[in-house]
Write a structure and sequence with these properties.
By secondary structure, this protein is of the alpha+beta class. The chain has one domain. Helices cover 22% and strands 10% of the residues. It is built from 1 helix and 2 strands. It has a two-stranded antiparallel sheet. A hairpin with a 4-residue loop joins strand 1 and strand 2. The two termini are 19 Å apart.
């Protein structure tokens, strides 16, 4: 656990029953046919505010 002592750690709670991946410039839901859900709007906003901090070729 020492590796995390100098790092920012973000924990996200999964609320809608769907896995979502955040990339530097996009998000991708596990299911491509998902209906609208308020949490997807929220996660899009989250990605927009911190996506620039996600390294290339990495996902959250």
């Amino acid at each position: 656990m020492d590796v995390f002592e100098t790092q920012d750690v973000v924990a996200l709670e999964k609320l809608d029953g769907e896995n979502t991946f955040l990339y530097k410039d996009a998000i991708h839901a596990r299911s491509l046919s998902s209906d609208h859900h308020p949490s997807r709007t929220w996660v899009k906003t989250l990605q927009g505010s911190l996506g620039y901090r996600i390294p290339e070729r990495r996902t959250l």
